[in-house]
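Sequence design from tokenized structure. All designs in this work follow the same two-part layout: the structure record, then the generated sequence. An example of the structure record is given first.
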């Protein structure tokens, strides 16, 4: 692939920040077209970069103002990687093929209508930490896999497969047909999350804060759980609710 002009700063094209860049270098350096860093960041990260940087990637030293211009933002903490290709996504058939081969216990996370890239990144980070095999998004009404999401994921987007599918409900039904059970997490749930007995192959479905899961996704779930709240607030942030749901499944499997 040819190099793009240095003055392009498409948000989808950049991974910014030391943690995200180092995770990408360790996971798949072939996706990096170029690496830019300030002299100060190079000094701080000298040892980490020496351990992770393959010989074919050269680091271009630039001042902070130039890096701001390249990235179109100033939240890079002195280092940014420009992607040679877009983040690879699974299509529906790839996802189903992978899911059919997974041995229990296994976990998938479905995100319905998560449009905030910070929440998306944080949820991918939690999915990675909980050992989820993939995160499933709708092609529409989902946050882009932007550098904001990358940074919020703390590098987890380099590790967790992401599937974008045309219809979440139909995908859940197809997963159920190959042995998966779907648990919805929603304020209107019929049971408490803490009473859940997780299945060997669990799909956890989560909606956006306030809106919750869409009607067709709710209908596709085998059961719907809620998180008991004792305070005055009516709901939790989506990324917090997702993390609770993921790790409650993990916890129950260890009891």
């Amino acid at each position: 692939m040819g190099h793009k002009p240095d003055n392009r700063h498409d948000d989808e094209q950049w991974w910014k920040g030391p943690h995200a860049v180092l995770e990408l270098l360790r996971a798949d350096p072939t996706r990096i077209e170029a690496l830019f860093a300030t002299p100060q960041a190079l000094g701080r990260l000298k040892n980490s970069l020496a351990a992770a940087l393959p010989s074919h990637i050269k680091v271009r030293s630039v001042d902070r103002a130039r890096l701001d211009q390249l990235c179109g933002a100033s939240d890079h903490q002195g280092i940014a990687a420009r992607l040679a290709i877009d983040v690879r996504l699974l299509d529906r058939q790839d996802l189903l093929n992978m899911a059919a081969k997974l041995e229990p216990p296994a976990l998938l996370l479905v995100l319905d209508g998560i449009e905030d890239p910070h929440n998306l990144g944080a949820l991918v980070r939690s999915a990675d930490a909980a050992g989820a095999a993939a995160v499933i998004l709708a092609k529409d009404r989902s946050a882009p896999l932007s550098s904001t999401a990358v940074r919020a994921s703390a590098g987890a987007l380099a590790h967790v497969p992401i599937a974008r599918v045309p219809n979440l409900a139909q995908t859940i039904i197809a997963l159920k047909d190959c042995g998966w059970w779907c648990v919805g997490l929603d304020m209107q749930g019929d049971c408490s999350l803490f009473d859940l007995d997780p299945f060997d192959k669990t799909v956890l479905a989560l909606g956006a804060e306030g809106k919750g899961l869409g009607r067709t996704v709710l209908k596709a779930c085998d059961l719907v759980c809620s998180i008991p709240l004792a305070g005055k607030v009516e709901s939790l942030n989506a990324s917090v609710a997702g993390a609770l749901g993921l790790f409650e499944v993990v916890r129950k499997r260890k009891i």
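The first helix runs from residue 18 to 27. We note this feature because it recurs in several other targets discussed in the main text.
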